[in-house]
Amino acid sequence: MRKFFIVFLMLTLGQMFAQELNCNLVVNAKLTGNENDQIFKNLERQLTEFINNSSWTNKSFNPQERINCNMVVTVNEQDNDMFLATLQIQASRPVFNSTYNTPIYNFNDKNFSFRYIEFQNLVFNPNQYESNLVSVLAFHIYMILGIDADTFSPNGGDPYFKQAQTILNYSQQEGFKGWKREDGNQSRFALIDALLSNSYKEFREVMYAYHRDGLDQMYQDQKMAKTTIADEIQKLKNMHNRRPNSFLMRMFFDTKADEIESIFSDGPKIKITELVSTLTRIAPMHASKWRNITF
After folding, report:
1. pLDDT tens figures, 74-98
2. Does 148 share its domain with 238?
């Protein structure tokens, strides 16, 4: 009986503290000319285990609730323990009552330089700098958690975005790029600064309603859901008027353009003339997709 209780307790605790992410991470080292070196394979394995086996929140996640994401580390140069790389991150979340996963985060971090010694311990401390490798990964993990939470409740991502901001603040000390205002308008600094700014409040408002009142209601009433999504996209005009061609706007449409094209090219018909006009105005980089919305 005692053994049964111990096994039950272990299984229960395993469920209670289940990790939050289901991340597929790839290290691409072709540009170094040494892609088959064992160090890159070990780096890939260590980063995958670090992300998937760490607990990033105090909430319980069942296995089927883990957030799916993909990360590609492209190593451009290696000099001993110094790596110059980029990091492409994509994340998605399931749509209610369907088998469809909707993309929620698409970011190309071009300033992913780090030091790595094979088999070094990777430890995340929420209030203290450990390494740029850990800081960059943790920052984007909290961005994923925050945006995912925002799609389920209004401003639900606040605690995760604040943790990302904390990581940014203590990671500025080592001089790696991406953490400071002067590092450009597509940096980690620019991203979290915009997300927490009232000047871009529509981004988070739209992320919630687009998903909860739009996509998650598709199973019940497709026409109503499509109308809601169209109305939410229209709200982005206010953000565009205040901050034309903003980083957050580009990130939103880099993530959602294919999905929007698909949504409004099939299913029940709704009025799309004004929607297409708005899309062409606020996201002209995807004009070829908007021209395909003729349904």
Report:
1. 999 999 999 999 999 999 999 999 9
2. no
DSSP string covering 152-168: TSTTTTHHHHHHHHHHH
Is 295 a domain residue?
no
Q: What is the Cα–Cα distance from 124 to 137, expressed in whole angstroms?
A: 10
Do both 29 and 152 map to the same domain? yes
Q: Note down the domain range covering 16.
A: 2-196
List, for residues 166-206, the tens digit of each pLDDT value: 999 999 988 999 999 999 999 999 999 999 999 999 999 99
